[in-house]
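Meet our chain:
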Amino acid sequence: MLKLLKKPLDGAILPFVKFSGITSFGALNQIKKALNTRKVGHTGTLDSFADGLLVAVVGRYTKLASYITGCDKEYLAVFKFGEETDTLDPSGVVIKRGKLPNYQALMDIVPNFVGKQSQIPPNYSAVHFNGRRSSDLMRSGEKVELQAREIEIFSIDVLEVNTTENQDIAKNPFVEEVMLKISCSKGTYIRALARDMALACGSFAFVSKLRRTRVGNFNLADAVGARMLPEFSVDNYVDVDTGIESNEIIAGCVSFSESIAKTVGLKTLELKSDFYDRFVNGRFIKKYWFKGFKPSGCQTTFAVFCCNEFCGIVNGTDGGFEYGAVFADKKR
């Protein structure tokens, strides 16, 4: 028997699996139904063809989305060489064809894409151009010229290589597909990486499969629905039932704790219980409200806790504090 919440949650974080074939927004519908709320957001879009980790924020915690979105991410990806589609994914139309790269040429250029670099996002993306999403402009036949953005790729690991006629890599064969594990910063487009790596070794490519495995310290293995995902590989594809029971969704919801705050890169402050009411009512913040506060000399964002209860976000400097958001109840 399915369990549905009768009363909406005030706030929760839910590491959740998005399955291939549905949009990130569509994936939230199951959460909204199970938790009896319309107030659900996510912390970073996954393309429709991709699957993997989507960190959802519920209720008042939707205000935390921007902090989690800024976390580093990790992906598994399969690049298919010899063709480039207009969307740089399998849903697009092939617009370029070229020769396959040989194994050594591909291996030689991989290290060149690790580190800080400029990357031009795909034209079919959520990046805005002249005030509109570039993907919407492309679909309406308008011209888009996106500017390069600074990103950082921390590591690229080659996990699997498919060569023509399954030749031994010692013979430097041509590569049809490669599976990579990629760790990168916010704003990195794996589809753009496939395009650029292929061009660097004299070929074309698009991303045929993509799975997000980590957001900050949130891991796919711990997400609701992870057990339903098929193994990720160059050849493997299994169509799965994307229905996750409401019981699992409810059980997977977690509160925003000090450990999660540190996971998303926030420093923490302990609010003295005597000043709880003043804080949640938005009074002017005093430094002595917090235990062991030490000025750092620079602007810092803190997650504030009182007796293990998450109270809110503040921005602090040596000159004082200002509220970012208050999450605690005014009645305790």
